[in-house]
Structures are given as C-alpha cells and as structure tokens.
Amino acid sequence: MIARVIVDVPVNRTNRPFDYRVPEWLVPLMKTGSRVIVPFGPRKLQGYVIGLEEAAEQGAADKLRDVEQVLDDQPPLSDELIRLGEWMSKQYLCPWVTALQAMIPAVLKGKSEKWLLASDQLEEEMCGRSPLLWELFRRKQLPLAEVEKHFPEEAMLVPGWISSGLLSTGYQVTDRVTRKQQSFVRSLLTREELAAAAESLPARAEQMRRVLQLLIEQEGQSFSVKMLQEELGITRSPLKSLESRGWIAIEQLEVYRDPYAHRRFAAAQKPVFTDQQEHVLQAVQLSIKKNEYGAFLLHGVTGSGKTEVYLEAIEETLARGREAIFLVPEISLTPQMVEKFKARFGNEVAVLHSALSQGERYDEWRKIIRKEVSVVVGARSAVFAPFQNVGLIVIDEEHETSYKQEETPRYHAREVAIWRAKENNAVLLMGSATPALETYALAERGRYTLLSMPDRVGNRPLPRVHVVDMREELRSENRSMFSRQLHEMIGERLARQEQMVLFLNRRGFSTFVMCRSCGYTLRCVHCDISLTYHRTNHTARCHYCGYTIKQPSHCPECQSEHIRFFGTGTQKVEEELARLFPGIRVIRMDVDTTSRKGAHEELLRKFRTGQGDVLLGTQMIAKGLDFPRVTLVGVIAADTSLFLPDFRAAEKTFQLLTQVGGRAGRHELEGDVVIQTYTPEHYSIMHATRHDYPSFYREEMLQRRRTGYPPYFRLVLITFSHEEVPVVIKAAHLVADYLRPRLAETTILLGPVASPIARVKDRFRFQIMLKYRDESRLPDLLAQATSAFEEWNKQQKVLMTIDVDPYVLL
After folding, report:
1. What element of type H or E holds 731?
2. Per mean pLDDT, which range of 9-13, 60-64, 148-152, 792-796 is the poorest?
3. Model confidence at 626: pLDDT above 80
4. d(Cα 388, Cα 309) in Å, to the nearest integer?
5. What does the DSSP 8-state code read for residue 27?
6. N or C: which end of the chain has fewer CB within 10 A?
7. Is the bond preceding residue 435 a cis peptide, omega within 30 degrees?
8. What is the mean pLDDT of the chain?
9. 174 pLDDT exceeds 70?
10. For residues 261 and 268, what is the distance between their CA atoms, to the nearest angstrom?
C-alpha cells in the first residue's frame, strides 16, 4: 500500500503530496485523513494522509521510504476537509498543510524535535566525569534543547562525540494529545450482596455504609470518587477499605473536559412566531427539506427575532438526521448563545472558541468527530467542524470583520461556509441588521435569496436616536467627554434603576501621551505607532507588539513636567463616570479586562443579574447582547473609526452605530441612543440615526463605484516586511515588475508604497494592491510570482504575504 502524504513543511517547494510505503503491520491502521510520522530528509515530521493507493508505479516502490507511525485510531480529517484544504490552498495562496492544520485542534499539531542518541559504542567506562555522557548512557536519548539547557558546558563537545561515533542525532515528533482521567467507583456485588455487606459492617464504619447505601439505591451506576467525597462527606479511606474487601472496584476512566459541566440549563419554551418570522422560516425550511444547496441573507433589524429563526431552522435540520454549524463573530457573544442553544438542544451542542483551554477544545472537537453531538456553536474556526453530514450553516452578524482570518491561511469563514454548503447540499443562512455591502449586492443580483424582517418582535419601536454635535458642546464651554444630554440621561436611568451601555472603541486610559512644552509624543520603539496610556498600572503600551514602559513624569525630550494624556480610552471613561456619579457601578469589557479565562461570561452574568448599572466597552459589546433593562446606549465618540485610511471606514461606522444602538429598548421598556460626534453631517451617521440601511447602502455603493472598490472590484493585498528599508523596497518592486506585464488590462496595480503603519515589530512594511474584476488567471499568476521569488526572499529574509479580499489595509 502507498500513502500520499502532505508533509508539515509549509513552503512552496513541498506544497504537494509525497508517496510513502505503508509497512504491512501498519496497513490495518492506515486511513485517509490520518496523521502520520514520516522521514523527510534527515528529519522525522508529522504529515497528513490525503490518499491511499494499492501499489506504486513500476520500479518506484523500491525508492520509497516507509511511514513510521500512525498517530490516530480515528482520522481527524474527512475526505471533504482534505478537498477543502486543497481548495483553500489555491484560493488563499497558502501551503496545503497550513490549511489542513487550521481545521484541527492545536493539540493535534505535532512538534518535530531534534534528539541526541547514544550509539552502541558508548560504554560505561567511556563516560568518565561527563554528566552528559552518563545521562545518555542511562537514558539512551535526550532532546537537544534539554542538552543545551542542562549541560551548557559540554554542548560544544557534542560535535566531536558525534564524529567519533559515540553519539548521533535524530528527529522525533511529539504528540501533544492528553486525555483527562478520573477515578470512578463501580460495585462488584449484586443488590442483595451489597445489602448483606452493609449489614455486616461494624457500627463505626458509617462512611463505608453510606457508600454501599448509594450503590444499592442507584444499582448499576458508577460514581466519580470526587463526587462521592463531596456528596457523602467522606474521605478516600473508606473507599480503599471497600476495594480491599473486593466489594467495589476503583477504576481510572477517561472523561471530557467540559467547560459547561458546572452549569444547569433550563429547557426553553418555543416562542410564538411573528408573521415575518413565519415567512422567513417557510423559505428556509423548504430548502432544508429538499436537501439541496440554498444560500439566504436574512436582513432583520436589531430585536426582530433572528436568533429564534436560527434555532427553529436548526431543529428542522436535526429532525432530518443532519448536522448544523452556528457561527458567532465574538467570544463575548458565545456565553449568551450557548445558554440558548443548550436550553433548546441540551447535550446535542458542542462549543468551539478560543477562550476555552486547549484540552477543552480538543474534547469538544472529539464529541463532534465521535458523532456524540449534532450542533456546533463557535467563532470563525468552527466552520471546520468535522461533521460528516452538514445540513445547515448559520452565520450570525455576517458583516463582522472577525470572520476574516488575519494570519495564514487568510480565509473568510463565509467563503468556506459556501464551499461546505455546496459540497453537502446544505443550506447557508446569513443574518445581520447591517449586512456587508458585498453580501447585500450579491443578494440583489440573485446569488443569495434575500429575506427581510423589518420590524421588532411585538412591534416594539426602535430606540429614539439623539445626535449630539460635540462642536456645539465645546462652544458652550463643555469640555467633558459627556455631552449635557448624555449626562442628564445617565442620571435619569440611575434614578429609575435602569441599565445602560456605553460604547467607545478605544481601550486604555488615553490614546496618546504628549509633552505640551515641545510636542514630543511617546511612541513605540518597534512600531510606527503612539503608545496608549493604561491607568491601572501606570504604563504606556503598544497595542501592536506589546512594548510597555512606565509612564514618565518628565518629557524624555525636553525634561518638561508638562507631559499630559490626550484622547479618551475606556479606562478614562470609567474613572470619569465614578467622579460624576458617585456610587455608580461600572462593568468594563475590553481586551484588558477579558483576557482571563471565563472573564467574558463572568462580566456579562454580573450585568445580567443587576450587579452593574453601566456596561462600558469596546466593539465586543456592540452586537448580539440582549438585556431587558437596558434603556440607554451612549456612543462616546462616533468618529473613531470614520477617518481611518480604509475604504470600509464609513461602512464599519454605520454598522457599529446601528448594532450598538440596537442594544437599547429590546423588551418592554423603551430605549434611547445618544450618539456623540464631531461630524453629524456625515452620511453614515445620518443614516444610522434613522436605522436606514437601504439609504446608506445606496450612497455607499455610489462611493465604491466612483473609487473602484468592492463590490465593483475585488482586491489582493501583497505586503512585504524586512528590517531594512532598501531591501523591502527592492522586494516590492521586483514582484510589481514581474506582475505588471502579465496582468490583464482591466486589472489595476497600485504601488509599491509604504504601508499605512510603515513599521511593526522592528520590520519595515511596503505593499502592493491589485484591483481586478474577472481575472480567472490571477491565483495562478500570484502563485507563480511567489514561487519565482521564494528563494530570493528566503536569502534576504523578506517576509511576503498575500491577502485575497483583505479586510485590514493598515
């Protein structure tokens, strides 16, 4: 048997399958999609079997090397996911192995390590006074990293010992898979024998009697030792005594690391659907019943009941014996969604997102691959859930940029979902109150079926929106971050014991630190970006590379004491609220407060249970959250994202304002939204105040047509980085000169130019942008350019990245 293997060497030269002979003893274990360990040059590497053949071409079998090990009883990759990896490799110009690794849990990505091995020639008397040789004689092998760490004085002698034949080197692949084990108690006696055993115990053996009584009451069940100790108030000693008498067995069994094991979810009641919900459901369910591909865009205002439509569509899918994937854009949305899904579908739900530990993610993933669940809820990477019979994929808040991966492979979850839905004859349902322009344009052209829910459930009114011109506030001598209207409304809500959401898309205390005497600004020494001041630990921090310094008391340039904080971050808003409204309870949600495991869930639970008056945060609080007592939403600075060097700036501003405004007045209490801005006349703000997506769409589409941006053109961004400016400029020009004569006449090449943030982590950045319409040859041409300059880039240490349909242009 011959295995076709994609080897874990993510470069263009090796971006193809390699053939290996499968030894007879491994044939029963060998399956397509398995991870294997194979020799590759002098190393041993992990690879993925993408195909099996009975025999090699004539004369070729003798030249092949053997597969050394199969790592999986059950392959982690299905045939479908292998084909998806190949498609992603071509679509997003990334190595095939990188695409495959994006689909599996981190613990399944084996690590190749160099080891030092003792040869048969190494004998005890040769070890002399060498601790390293003694250790190798005793253990036979050691990781090279361990040798360099623990035996630094002898590391320089290793090459001599290798040349003399005493030692050799080799490579081993370490698998990081771990499985949680737990002790369980199982009865070895019948019910009658247990009763007799309990009778025979002396009076002082009360703890042993309690254990036996439980085993009698719950006949045939096993109980974890931990549970018995907690529930019965016993130590481990009576269990050992019962085991020594042969009455019970204490066994080590594998258990799942379940992040929701401590939670109890009450079963949810189905709501009465509105007419518009029924209309949408009929269209979606008809497609589900036909078992054919269908793609729907559900454009529903905030509070129109889109989530209930998703749940009902999933129920229909499960009733037909098929599986469903539900994607959410933010980790902060996951706890709320998990609660709804667990309440509706119970143990049928697995959860995948980056806030789980690696072990928890691995166990949730194993539930999917073992067919123990039928629904997956998760962020972007959950689109790769290893289901065999996907019937429905739902993308909630489909406009969110977090669905686009910013590291290789630079895929968009929406495009992957379309591929999987077509492959499985499944339904794709995308929903948003503010769809991405590209998605809405494709729906208008008939690529997706457009469904609409223009009214809130129960005909509740959309919140009243008040736009405050902050220029007028300044003219009125109000230099506070709160306008007079917002200040007054916050006071009213506190008096009525209602809750508020305040939104500011900047974390930290202030956005930059500047000397008023000489104008010097604190900047990162590694990136072309100013440092953000964080009040909690009095540091100035770079949000790109993490560089941190203690906040100086004097200007480093002129030694002036007049070094001040400018701009506003979430920490500063929190402090100002406490000053203006003594006793106000603020729950702040941003990257700084949610980095700890479980922090999202804990903070949202506190707000939901009334332990906070104000939920203050960045964009992670802007969408999806639903709190009955929130009647006021305040947008502190609506202009923060409006004037970035990004053609999507107006769209992102409109989406954020509409989404965050939609958190108010979702239930019985009516809501208000206050938008503070210095540009109230901008069309994105004007249309957001009226909740008028169609008008914004038409105006923004005119702008995109005039400037030649998506959806009228597609984009490719090629970025180069290097520690020296001349090298990065030369690399960019070489690729631009290669592409220019080969591109179609309708394709526009812009650049090379310096990136908007010209230096990150001590590397200078240049970029080329391609605008194209229907150039089917472009992926092949970009692959050729990558291959043509791969060796030169490697020698010069230039990093070249290609982003197809980029979302971040900075």
Report:
1. helix 725-739
2. 60-64
3. no
4. 24
5. G
6. C
7. no
8. 88
9. no
10. 19
Within 13 Å of residue 67, how many CA atoms lie on the same side as its CB?
A: 31
Phi-psi region of 546 (alpha: psi -120 to 50; beta: other; left: phi over 0): left
- Judging by DSSP bridges, how do beta strands 532-534 and 539-541 pair with one another? antiparallel
The pairing of beta strand 294-300 with beta strand 111-118: unpaired
CA-CA distance, 183 to 360, in Å (whole number)? Answer: 19
Name the H helices within 57-183.
Answer: 79-91, 96-101, 131-139, 144-150, 158-163
Measured distance CA(401)–CA(334) in Å, rounded: 17
Distance between CA atoms of residues 333 and 509, nearest Å: 25
3-state SS class at 455? coil
Per-residue DSSP letter, 558? T
Whole-model pTM: value is: 0.83
Number of neighbouring beta carbons within 10 Å of residue 293: 15
Instruction: Count Cβ neighbours within 10 Å for each residue of 776-808 and write b for 16 or more, e otherwise.
Output: eebbebbbebbeebeeebeeeebebbbbbbbbe
Q: Helix, strand or coil for residue 334?
A: helix
Q: Which residues lie closer than 8 Å to 425 by C-beta, 6 or more apart? A: 291, 292, 293
Distances (CA, A) of 233 to 227, 252, 348: 9, 21, 33
Backbone angles phi, psi at 515, to 5 degrees: -85, 125
Taking the C-alpha atoms of residue 443 and residue 432, their distance in angstroms, rounded to an integer, is: 13
Q: Which residues pair with 541 in a beta bridge?
A: 532, 548
Residues 6 or more apart whose Cβ sits within 8 Å of residue 450: 296, 297, 299, 440, 443, 444
How far is the C-alpha of 280 from the C-alpha of 112, rounded, in Å? 51
- Measured CA to CA in angstroms, residue 246 lies from 188, 251, 703 at distances of 7, 13, 81
Does pLDDT of 331 surpass 70? no
Question: Per DSSP, what are the bridge partners of residue 58?
Answer: none
Nearest residue to 178 via CA among 108, 111, 226: 108
Cα distance between residue 327 and residue 330, in whole Å: 9
Number of neighbours of residue 149 by Cβ within 10 angstroms: 10
Which amino acid appears at position 802 of this protein? I
Q: So what's the pLDDT on residue 511? A: 64
CB 749 within 8 A of CB 768: yes
The rounded distance, in Å, linking the Cα atoms of 82 and 100 is: 7
Helices (H), 38-183: 79-91, 96-101, 131-139, 144-150, 158-163
What single-letter DSSP state applies at residue 218? Answer: T
- What is the pLDDT, as a whole number, of residue 752? 95
Q: How much of the chain is in helix, strand and coil states, percent to nearest 5?
A: 40, 25, 40
**Interaxial angle between packed helices 206-217 and 191-200, expressed in degrees from 0 to 180 and rounded to the nearest 10:** 160
Q: How far apart are CA 140 and CA 118, in angstroms?
A: 5
Query: Can you give the pLDDT at residue 392?
Result: 98
Of 620, 616, 613, 658, which Cα lies nearest the Cα of 638? 658
Q: Where are the beta strands (DSSP E) in 201-303?
A: 223-224, 248-254, 294-300
* Region label for 486, one of left (φ > 0), alpha (ψ between -120 and 50) or beta (otherwise): alpha
- Omega into 711 within 30° of 0, i.e. cis? yes
Helix (H) or strand (E) holding 722: strand 714-722
With tokens 């600004």, the residue in question is 521
Question: How many whole angstroms separate alpha carbon 765 and alpha carbon 767?
Answer: 7
User: Quick check: helix, strand or coil at residue 468?
Assistant: strand
Per the structure block, which two tokens stand in for 121? 């020639």
**Residue 308 pLDDT level (bands cut at 50, 70, 90):** very high
415: CB partners within 8 A, 6+ apart: 91, 805
**Assigned token pair, 573:** 């808003």
Q: How far is CA 684 from the centre of its chain?
A: 29
Query: What are the structure tokens assigned to 443, written together?
Result: 């729906």
Strand runs labelled E in 480-603: 499-503, 512-515, 532-534, 539-541, 548-550, 563-566, 586-589
Q: Which residue has the higher pLDDT, 611 or 597?
A: 611
